[in-house]
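Title: Prediction job returns without error message
Component: structure pipeline
Severity: low
Priority: P3
Assignee: unassigned

Description:
Job completed but the reporter wants confirmation the result is attached to the right record. Sequence as submitted:
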Amino acid sequence: VTAIVLLIACANIANLLLARGAGRSMEMGVRLALGARRSHLITQLLTESVLLASLGALAGLIVANWTLTGIAALAPPEVADTLGFGLPPVVLLFAGAIALATGIGFGVFPAWHSTRTELVTAIRANAGQISGARGAARFRSSLVTVQIALATTLLIAAGLFVKSLVNVTRVDLGMRVDHVVTFRIAPERSGYDSARALLLYDRVEDAVGAIPGVKAVSSSTVPILAGYTWGSDVNVQGFPSGPDVDRNARVNEVGAGYFATLGVHPRAGREFTTADRRGAPRVAVVNQAFAKKFNLGESAVGKFISTSGPDSLNIQIVGVIPDVKYNDVKQAVEAMFYTPWRQETHVGQMSFYVRSAEPAALLRALPAVLKHIDPGLPMNGLKTMPEQIRENVSVDRLISVLSASFAVLATVLAAVGLYGVLAYSVAQRTREIGVRMALGAGSGRVRALVLRQVSGMMLVGGGIGLVGALGLGRAARSLLYGLEGHDPVVFALAATLLTLVAFGAGYVPARRASLVDPVRALRYE
């Protein structure tokens, strides 16, 4: 994407250098006539091109530093700390190399074209003939056409990513987490053994539940919607258990009242209570995807499962819940079963979920409560569940923001390039326009003459851009949610927007052409 924007910017620079070279045709013709070597003139023009690119690179590095600050704010704290957004020396060297390469690469043709002018040709051009060969004019138009094609591709890609993000934000999680706060503790890292850790989890739930405004508290060993997952092969009563049978399911060990805390209501049976602990019959709750995968139908409650072997079905299903998102908002819900962590002998870490009427006040109170229980026990991941969900889709949000920003930048650059080419073309065709108007052409026909150039470049560039967008959409299909890499609405909106921008950029030169005074134009030099 950045390479595409760079190409569009370089195309503008090439057009600028071509126009500037055409304006210096008399100077170059005179210097060549006086004995200047063409290679020296080309070297001078390339030096100017590289200097211009270097100044642009310096300004770009300043903007990049500001942009990285914004990107770091959009990314999750863990990602920002890991990646360490900044501008290391290797990036500065790379920027310098890019500036040198673009300065030379996109300055060669303008320099070569500007120094092939003979003195007689330059004098005739300066006397009123159209400046610049048809090849240069076609080259300028081709560059703008390429800009339009690239901008079209980026606009459509940005539209697809934005629509994908909208689809993600509308995903039904299967639970209500609007007033839920979460945090994690890992007591074993602070020297706790398994027995003390299990007692600690009970103390934390009791202490947090006593905070004013708290409505419910529960916990799980695997944090939900945090990108973590845990699975296991499971044997199910009445379901084949051969080696070629898919018996894998996601699993989480949760606390009493877990589903009620998250606003999930069982479809059948019950959820866990504090009575479901070691010494009590082992129990499990499954989701509907589990019941469907293992052919349990409507009679899942009461059936037995096992994670150790088909001959020891020792865990009874006591409840069935709706399908709830587990580790990723975008991932389809898989077969899953839950067991009480209080029936386990070893639980290394725990995530807690607290429903409160005032989440902001709870966020301030929780660190003090945990410090009172154990001052040396660190609390991790303290945040609201809506914040957790936003972090879960942070990559999608970051891609959408960046792609939209680059698409807007590319569109603006393409509009500037189009305006520059048309304005230069109108200035060079002033005599022609004056003749047309003197022969009876109205201002409307003159405007149409200029806007036809816009139409031609839009048709060719837009068509190429649409094809490019189809390819890019297919390549980025894995990053899109609820889309197949193409969307008619997005394509239509992008094409409409770019058409409006293009004709808006072309309107000013077209209007200026229609206001040409025929008498003054015929005297134009």
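Comment from assignee: result matches the submitted record. The two ends are 43 Å apart (CA to CA).
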